[in-house]
Amino acid sequence: MQIKRRTFLKGALAGSALLSLPLVFDSKADAREKLKPYKPDKVTFNFCEMCFWNCTEKVFVNDGKVRKLEGNDKSPVNFGKLCAKGQAGIKTLYDDNRLKTPLIRVGKRGEGKWKKVSWEEAFEFAAKKFKEVIDKYGPESIALEMHGTGEPAIHRLFEALGGTTNFAVPAYSQCRGSRDVGFYYTFGAALGGVEPLDLSNSRYIILLGRDITESLHVSELYHFSKAIGNKAKIVYVDPRYTHTAAKADRYLQIKPGTDTAFVLALINVMVTEDLINHDFVDKYTVGYDKLKPHIAKYTPQWAQKQTGIKAEEIIQIAREISSFAPNCIIVPPRRSARYGNDTQFARAVAIANALLGNWFQPGGFFKPNKIKVPKANMPDVEKSKYAQLAHQRNAANAVLALTNLPTITREIVGVLGLDNVLWEAIRTQKPYPIKAMISYATNPLFHNGDSNKIKEAMNKLDFYMVVDILPWEHTLYADVVFPESTYLEMYAPPKSKSWKYPYAHFREPAVDPIYDTRDIWAIVHGIAKHMGLGEFFPFKDAKGVLYSSLNRMPKDQRDKLLKDGVISLGPIPEDADLSGDIDPKVAYQKMLDAYKKAPFNPYPIALGEDVNFNTGSGKIDIYSDFLAEDGFDPLPNYTPPNKPKKQNEFRLVFGRVAVHTHARTQNNEWLLEHYDDNNVWINPQDAKSINIKDGDKVVLVKGNLKSPYPVKAKVTDKIIQGTIFIAHGWGRFSPYTTRCYKKGVSDAEFCSNDTDPLSGAAAFQNSFVSIEKA
Length: 774
Ligand code: SF4
Known about the structure:
Elements: H1 5-13, H2 16-19, E1 23-24, H3 31-34, E2 36-37, E3 42-47, E4 56-62, E5 65-71, H4 84-87, H5 89-93, E6 103-105, E7 114-116, H6 119-137, E8 142-146, H7 151-160, E9 167-168, H8 170-187, E10 204-208, H9 218-229, E11 233-237, H10 243-247, E12 250-252, H11 259-272, H12 278-284, E13 285-286, H13 288-295, H14 300-307, H15 311-323, E14 329-331, H16 342-356, H17 385-393, H18 398-402, H19 407-416, H20 419-428, E15 436-440, H21 444-447, H22 452-458, E16 463-468, E17 480-483, E18 492-497, E19 503-507, H23 520-530, H24 542-551, H25 555-564, E20 566-568, H26 584-597, E21 620-621, H27 625-629, E22 650-655, H28 669-674, E23 680-682, H29 684-689, E24 697-702, E25 705-706, E26 711-715, E27 723-727, H30 747-750, E28 754-755, E29 762-763, E30 768-773
Parallel strand pairs: 8-9, 8-15, 10-11, 10-14, 11-12, 13-21, 15-16, 16-17, 22-27, 23-26
Antiparallel strand pairs: 1-2, 3-4, 4-5, 6-7, 6-17, 18-19, 19-20, 22-30, 23-27, 24-25, 24-26, 24-30, 28-29
Helix pairs in contact: 6-23, 7-23, 8-16, 8-19, 11-14, 11-15, 11-16, 14-15, 20-22
The protein binds iron/sulfur cluster.
């Protein structure tokens, strides 16, 4: 019995009605006669790990095999739905390319020659290497980068080893860092990974390169679809016409790197035409008096020259969105690692939203809520001998020593790290040697720009440890590779997610590990034991951690979690009915009245509560004293993007497709059926100038660098002239991931390694390439 593609697609794309009645399709006989209700032998609870959104799900098992994944209909977030990537988690579990046993390198770095070893040998080897590095260079010479649900486990090991602040969550430098810093300086709050956007209750939405239908997360798309159903006006701004653009009422093809000019001009119109939300601005913001003269130069006519968007359109959009305030939103981009002025761009977006008064308002930004879930009972890892040693040595954070970031950014970077700078510290061995690196569930050769420099850095390490599921490219450079079980084969402690509807869920295995793999808690337990740190890791695997946490929960909460797979904080009030049948003011009031009785409140400002902002002033800092004190622009200014140095060089931009997650799913059999290679989007006029035709095989060239695997040119006016687009995550060169090997071109190889001075985050799209026929 095998689930075939058509069934998979139905499940992935259809609504909850279909999902609630799973059917199995037997292709060997006539389908209509054989269609029968599906009865699982076993159903287990889980949450999806195919992307960080972690939709809550149920796993259906027959004959000891996972047959189907389905969104948990008790989830207040994904409401019984999964996307195609989520459904294809089955094919990650059953990928025969998976890492099947611990490995120790026997060839040169990059050759991918290993010997298979036992778990005990691998633990002993890692422990020996960590001890050698600590003895020779001190614990500060150990670094960590990590991603995903297992982060607390690997970070605990890192702390026990005396690892200092040299760790990084790549999502900061490669994705949301500039945006979070910009919002922190303005609202005293970062937006985080799961943004508090109240799309379903919004009446006017501006998306700036935020391709919500391709950078797809189930609940976000669900609420965006509701907004479209409610006839919210959608404006989409991007150099590329995307699927999201196709859903918009108005698409504006903007020159790349000029979004700040567009937003500054919107602010200009709001200010000069007095369209701002005065009640909100007077009560909750400081610095509007300084913004007024500052913004005068950023007229729509000036912005037209920068952006290519007509001044009249900018004026009209500013007027339209203001007329819906506060129930409207200018959506901050998800990935803001673009042109090096990204934090000032985020500041401009934050200020424009503040002028609309949409903070903690329906249709604007809601207040995220969270359920408190007890942690497992474990000793204070700070007491480990290596942590004590690190404390005595008091080594500087290498990343902070290499950067000149403003004060508040330094605090944020102290918590989330800067992966791009961390690898540069390793490559240069400055300000001091970093000699051991752990990559957990993240591939630095695909999430950093100028990725050949990362290979150089890897060669500077005495010890490189990788924990992953598949033998991706970075594993070819590792000294030891620990194979982690997939999320369908393991337990995980309750995970509480912060969002509009607070909820927590947990994970239990649907099947035993297929290969000789272990969960991340078991892996860190083994290494710690061999380091003499066993007392700090009292649980031998994730099951122990889960049950310790469950045992500390109030009984009713625990019972509900085990019964439903998810807990929330009570029934969710209906969204405002904006279908047009009711006056929107009445609809919003009805919803707010319902929230008055709810145990959580996403709209405190709308409900008249006193709100303090975690800024210097206690209000929203339109003008930032903190930035002024550190010598940075206290109000956002416009920096034009860089230009190509030669003729026929094109700016390289990249983005997502809906059926792949970053660089993690390119070997997935089902997802490959829908997108199995990237191509190069090029404008017809650019293509003509270099004699490229649609479908020609081409390679990208930058200096001495040439992409090794030819891809097709897609000649289309959906991309603006002077710019080319490729989908992220391709150009795969690990021969052990056989389904995607030698497919596509890698953006990571060609995009720039510049940084934004305010956040330290990457500025990937400052890179230009030329194109040659293959
Ligand atoms: S959005 Fe899709 S891939 Fe991400 S967690 Fe949800 S179902 Fe999984």
